[in-house]
Specification:
With about 500 residues, this protein is mainly α. The chain contains 21 helices and two strands.
Amino acid sequence: MISPINIDMASLNLPTLAPMLSAIFGALVILCIDLAKKDLHKSFYVMLTILFLMIDLGATLGYNGVSTRGFFDLMLLDGISILSQVIIVVASALFILLALSQQRFHEYRYAEYFSLFLFMIAGFQFMVATDSLILIFVGLETASMALYVLIAMHNRDRSTEAAIKYFTMGAMAAGMFAFASMILYAITGSVELGQISQVLVSTNFDNYPMLLVAVVFMLASMGFKLSLVPFHTWAPDVYMGSSAAMAGYISIVPKIAMFVVALRFFAIFTSVDNQFVHMILYIVVVITMTLPNIIALVQTDIKRMLAYSSVSHAGFAMGAILVGTTQATESLFIYWILFLFTNLGSFSMLWINRTKNKHGFQSDHPFEKFSGLVKISPMTATIFALFLLSLAGVPPFSLFWGKMFLLSATVNAGYVVLALIMALNSAIAAYYYLKLIVYMFLKEPTYDDRIEYMGNANNALRTVVGLAALATITSVLYIDPLLEMISTYVKMSGF
């Protein structure tokens, strides 16, 4: 007779699931409301989504203690997971406010859009709140499947094409992740990164050739999600096919989730100074920083230029994982928090200045479209220039501090050549950011009625752009307390 399995509810530590359950419950509530009452206004669903995101954020911040596990040891609640979940939820709340557009866009007519959005957030949160490869895979696929549909719901030919490309590349990445996990389980007998690390160190990295195969497949899988070269080819087309707001979101939230996974995975090798893995990471980081920067120089569409720029920034941030020190980990998070406001603000400006009538332009957002913008709408031109200068790393705007801290961590760890490459790439990037500023401030207008402006935007859009601009300008005032908070959470995780 099979004896019953007794489960101690206290040992499950169910509060570790509270943030994700908040998002999942919110998604189900939205679906139920839509079944009961059709054709409710999108603003109701936006407010409901933000309500559940605030509950999610409260549940995340409600825990403040040492690292703990829960739900059969699958969940790992530590400083890194709390910090990354806060970034995910805050960025998501800012993004969903952009849905309160005055124009009618196809995707916002459906309650399913907001439900899928909350399911996607829960998937990203599962990715960062565990070190189990199985749960990471489940979270990754949950978030990815929802994201593919959200992109396709923009209901343009280019959007469908972008969703299919993203799905195809994502399926390939998922297969590589599963194959790498299988090899790691065969070598170590575990799918938890902490136990995998212990086994590999205790056996002095036996079966090294197979382990390197697993590392290569895992890096390729992460490379697709982080848009690392040479796995970045999907990024420009997907950004072009998505709405400007969704493109900004894709450049931030999915990447911070995968950065946390990469941080936990490559810590196994950086902690013991594994030279071969170190060399692979070094090459990928340098090429990812440099090649997209060079390609961005010749782009004629602003959204495509920002897409390559985001790829380069991902390579810049990946340098922190290569360095692998506590200071570098802290720099990664401060860099990405500042990048969040700056990049989301930049794409929000494209969202505000959107139009379905191209007026003879070959793309939606060519440089020529913004010619002489300062003479038509000085406020719009000034705010956009502010975000561009921040992306270029011009002091005293926010991303300058992120780059400075990351360069400092790189130099302190002895990677002087890498720091020089980072600085050189920042100088290259400044050219194409300043190129757009030249169009806006030094050229004559092409069409006076071709776009909308900040003055025509509704309060929700002004709020998002205003918060992003305020964070970009006043970063010098809060950078020290922000760094102190990040340091506390990172040390809580033992990195």
